[in-house]
Amino acid sequence: MNPDSLQLPEQMSSNAAEYDALYNFIYYFSLFFTVAITAFTLYFVVKYRRRPGVKSTPPGHNLIMELTWTILPLFFIVGLFHYGFKLFVKNAVAYEGAMEIRVRGQKWLWTFEYPNGYSETDELRLPVGRPVKLIFSSEDVLHAFFVPGARLKKDVVPGMYSTFSFIPTKTGDLQVFCAEYCGGAEGDIAAPEKGAPKELNVAGLHKGHWGMLGVIHVVPADDFDKWVKNPPPPTCDGQPCTPEQWGEKLYTKQACNSCHTIDGRPMTGPTWKGIFGRNELLSDGTQVTIDENYIRESILKPQSKIVKGFENGNMPPYTIPDKQLDALIAYMKTLK
Ligand code: CUA
After folding, report:
1. Which of 3, 153, 192, 227 could be stapled to 146 by a disulfide with Cβ–Cβ 3.0 to 4.6 Å?
2. pTM of the predicted model, to two decimals?
3. Rounded Cα gap, residues 24 and 329, in angstroms
4. Atom 1, ligand 1: which residue's CA is nearest?
5. Ligand 1 center to residue 159 CA distance, Å?
6. Using CB atoms within 10 A of its CB, is residue 122 exposed (0-12), middle (13-18) or buried (19+)?
7. Is the beta carbon of 212 within 6 A of some atom in ligand 1?
8. Could you give the count of Cα atoms lying within 13 Å of 297 in the half-sphere of its Cβ?
9. Is the model's pLDDT at 193 over the cut of 70?
10. pLDDT confidence of 156, banded at 50, 70, 90?
């Protein structure tokens, strides 16, 4: 994708060519008539301007002309609707054998869940050349899943599922945006700083609609099969990590940082500073000491024991592998 171009990015999905054909047709057709109508209007304004001594003779009613300019465009508009609706239906109906991916929108991140239950935040891997069906749902408010490179834009509506089916046709990265304004954290809007490390930018950007970004990596089918069975742990600057270092990466990668700080400030959820071993009062009045089991339960089933004062946090359940849970807990222990 050329960032300087005002045109749509490179076609990377099975539906792109047809969408572009329709889009270009409407675009150039509208352009032609805009220019033609404006030109004729200007021409007539000059030609029939008021002149001294010339009396105006309005032509009055012309039935044939009025019928023509009503019926011709009507046929044309119905034709366009038909063409557009056909494309809409085509991508709403799943391809045979399509892999189903759950896409969950929430303020302000995307969670992708693979058929085997593994899930990732803000990053989705898809095998090139294989059909996929995305099933969208929202944890909170209205979002819209927008992938220009795949010519895909779908509303993500609370309380209902929407779907979109396509085949990625090229390997490479596709940028994901949220295309429906879904709010922002007041006073917490951190614009990305030029030249800041990528992790920092993501952390800052996560706090609002504008930061609800993601990426789809379209990879060779073999790589995908290997990866989805056994997602490798991320390396820290190319080196193998300790669990603590990996946990620190996951804090950003799984977007824990959009609700939990590590500096003591409460956000949507309790801060992680000093979390391990802390005594917390729960919303039902009981007291707990935060240990491995409490943290594990709070990630997998967040609504079971809520810390008093955070009843409105509404954290969704996460599906993450045990190794990642262990790494997150190891990281929490370092946050004294
Ligand atoms: Cu989600 Cu805007």
Report:
1. 153
2. 0.65
3. 53
4. 143
5. 16
6. buried
7. yes
8. 11
9. no
10. very high
